[in-house]
Amino acid sequence: MRLPLFLALAALLPGAVFAEQAMCEYRHPDRPSWDFFAACTVDEATQNGVVTLRASVMNGSRFTIEAAADGLADAKVNGLAAIRLDREDARCYRTEAEAELVCLHPRDAAPAAGPAPAPEAANADIGFGGGQAGFCLLTAREGGVEVLTEYGACVKRENCVASDAGGTTCLTDYDWKSGRLSEMARAEGWQTLDGATVEAGEQGCFTDARGGVRFCFSPRAMTAAAHPVLATVSP
Question: Which domain of life is it from (predicted)?
Fold first, then answer.
């Protein structure tokens, strides 16, 4: 298979980092509403014989592919085991767990058939592995005053597992469009945000009283009326 030029160069220069415009494709066999074929930027780095591809898609989705430069070893997509597919027109991988398809196409490529619409942030389920698109808010207290740390589009992904004892444990990732990642864990009687104990409040918010941190998620854009700290954001 002939590799795109920027992929071939990366394989020849250890430690080199390249950025390239491309078209990213995602398809889930059981969740067609998650599918997309959209413009993206792919950053590629090669180090110690491992190629790492980080794709940022225009619809807010992100995914990372890790594979051996020689293409012989097993690959991973967002940390999930995957196999490389034999394609001449694109670099494609399929996850072993759920058969999700991820492909990197040249920037001028078109979908093979029936283009899947690229969903808009905060208006549909998007992203690798699905998830709920929305908006995240993070604040901190400084001198007794709440100040804005960050506000922006994000994707919420949650996985829950029921134990034999009857309880349920959930792990939730909030993948910010900016690149920030907030992680929450909860079970009966406790919940944490980035490792710190938090308490649930109103409007989808959680507060770390000891650390002075407040985190909120909403499927719709937040307003200064509901969150006064947003009044400090420049229009």
Answer: Bacteria
